[in-house]
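Bench notes, afternoon.
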Amino acid sequence: MAVADRKESRVFYSGAALAIAAVMFAGFSRNYYLRAWLGTRVITFMVHIHGLVMTAWVVLFVTQTFLIARHRVDFHRTLGIFGAGLAAVVVGLGVFTITHSIERQQRGADSTLFMELFVAFDGISLFVFAGLVLAGILYRRRREIHKRLMLIAMISLLPPAYGRLVANVMHDKVELLVLGMMYASALSCLLVDAWRHRRVHPAFAIGSALVIASNQLTYFAQTYAP
């Protein structure tokens, strides 16, 4: 890879990591990060734990991206061991949180309703994240695949943050706008890849397709679920 191409790659992935972190912070600022100043509702202990774990994952992702940009591959790989365990905790806590929310809102829901609500609460996106991270770990020695899978995995976690950002300014068609924002986020990776390399890498193509499909299913569930 030429020096100029490597520099472009560092700029793109570092910028994407910072943009994702900014969206996460802005989306959850009122209900979590800045709640002490904004006076929003009281949150439970488990919500605190979930927020801390998700924050740790985002911070780790940004750190890992900048370690590669600074050629600290050795430290990046060491942190990656911790990251694999943290990703498993993210998925486990996510499933617990969604399940608890369904039980609280629809007590006694049958299996069909439960699955519809699980999809509506971004449960499929959580499994897409898990699959992409697992693939990223398996392909950790193949840099061009690994970095694309990890980036698209982070994008798969954006719907809740996007949803809160949109809901802060409007209350109609929130789900449709979030779907559009997820389409834009995933497709932007494909466009940048095509522009930089004159082709779309299969890791981005497959990952983006999974993200778009999961969010389309989520939108249908949100639209038609009771």
